[in-house]
Give the backbone structure.
Amino acid sequence: MDRTPPSADVVRSLVKGLAVLRALNEHAPARIATLVAATGLPKPTLIRILNTLLADGYVAPVPKSDGGGYQPTPKVRLLSGAFAQGSLLAQIARPLLVNVSLVIKWPVEVLTRDGLSMLIEASSRESAPITLKRFDQTRFPLLRSGAGLVYLAWLPKRESAELIAQAMAINDAFDGPRLTMAGLAKRLEEIRAQGWGHRDYEAPIQGTRAISLPILMDERPLAVLATITLRQVVGATQFERRLLPHLRVAAQEIVRQYRQHTGLREAIPA
């Protein structure tokens, strides 16, 4: 028996509200114009939905001093808690992140691509010897995050270019230098040659630096491993000498256990 509800029973307002939440997750912090472009909803409709999400605590405004716009609050995690707990990658990564944090002292995270964003799958923020309040959100723009650029740097060039074009087609709601295809291509080449990438943040703690490297499986990025430090404390040379070797071992162990749990064998070079 077909249990699919007739179209008349579909709550269109709920569908529109979920579309706005998805757009916020993809582009946070997002301004009204960005959300209109991403959802295709009329501006008055979008504003009504946004006000509802604000009133219920799922969305919060971003101060103008931090670029303005809107972003999801931690309450959004309640909508996906069961899925996050069930993620195989997260289950594998969590104990490994805790262990590597005990060695390098700084918090470590695993991020995966979800659409045009990088999503934190697992983190050792709560257990790392050095704790830094970074961001409440767990999702970061693909082109405006170190993890996103590292992920793109290890994709095949055509696939990377397609994702970049999609991300740039959305009205950019972020302050900072204007992104160009040529500039991004050069940056990705530099990251790949170096073997890791970073992005600096001035809020919520001035001088925060997120340093990322790829978790590669069969020469493709399965995910990205990132550690959160302070750039005045951990410079590039110190990172490469003291932290990077431990992070690489953790990345390799994540892949090894992931293969073991999924039954995927290592690809044989042609």
